[in-house]
Amino acid sequence: MTTTETAAGVLPAMADVPAAELRVAVIGVGMMGADHVARLHSRISGARVVVVSDAFTEKAEQIAAGIPGCRVVTEPLAAIADPEVDAVVIASPGQFHEAQVLACIERGIPVLCEKPLTMDAESSLGVVRAEDEFAARTGRRLVQVGFMRRFDPEYAQLRALITSGEIGEPLVVHCAHRNAAVAPTFTSEMMISDSVVHEVDVARFLLNEEIAAVTVLRPRATRHAVAGQSDPLLVVFEMTSGRIVDVECFVSTGVGYEVRTEVVAEDGSAMIGLDTGLVRAVGGPAGATRGSEIAPDFRVRFGRAYDIEFQRWVDAARRGTIDGPGVWDGYAASAVCTAGVEALRSGQRTEVRLADR
Ligand code: ISE
Questions:
Q1: Which of 41, 69, 218, 341 is the most buried (most CB within 10 A)?
Q2: Does the beta carbon of 253 lie inside 6 Å of ligand 1?
Q3: Is 128 helix (H, G, I), strand (E, B) or coil?
């Protein structure tokens, strides 16, 4: 087997990828989209960004100017319809995802859509049905949802450990999801739909089952919380088998980006996210200390996960399909977040309403 050298390490190359490079349109070049353009341009093989699209034309033009052969198509649906585009990355604001993803399915081209898949469970289910209909006709899946943690080597290792049976049956999962700071417009509802949504996917990914009910507790708020918002939150997922996942979500810690996950099982436990990369010992006026750095944000903490995610998506897209979480995962996450926001508002345990698969 041949291999591909990327920033993510040495990845196996797909044996049957076509020779032609994948021509990608990136819709939305804000913080995340711009990061993805840079990634596709400099670290991912087999693809090039040919179109960028953004409501802020100036930003799009500035990004396109740095990529040879890349042009701006301001209207996102025109970018998706462009005959020179083979695949699409959607990093636009969530309220535009539904129409953009449906346009990709309509054209039959692979798409990697950042979360959320759509803004609510009902519209996400509509996307599931549209892609199911395409898959029934062609045997191919087209929509991958950007839950990048599944590609993080630590999460992959944790899942492999659980699957191996070495620590026995998982019983409880403890998660911490901390951001140093958020925009003043970030509400407690967004803590569920924008932040805890990652733990929703992690819980489903690690335990391989659905979430049945959600409860949200509001501990005493930090004085650094966005005015009027509850921060931190404690979110409890009841899995269908009775396992429990708890998530401390705290988005104004003032410290750094910390994401920890500990699985407690019948014959042992395992934890990831300790940020113990390089441990340095230094002297100083207050005495010697030993410590390591904490990533400032998710682009750094999950940089490698994004690279792996993109390389695998490009390899699959060149074969006309996807390789990662799909529409059902996006829909399930929307359904759990809908229940989570309801639980936050009511203070009550709220059951997740999930359609039949
Ligand atoms: C952001 O949208 C993300 O996806 C990050 O991973 C998360 O940590 C952050 O809280 C969200 O706002």
A1: 341
A2: no
A3: helix
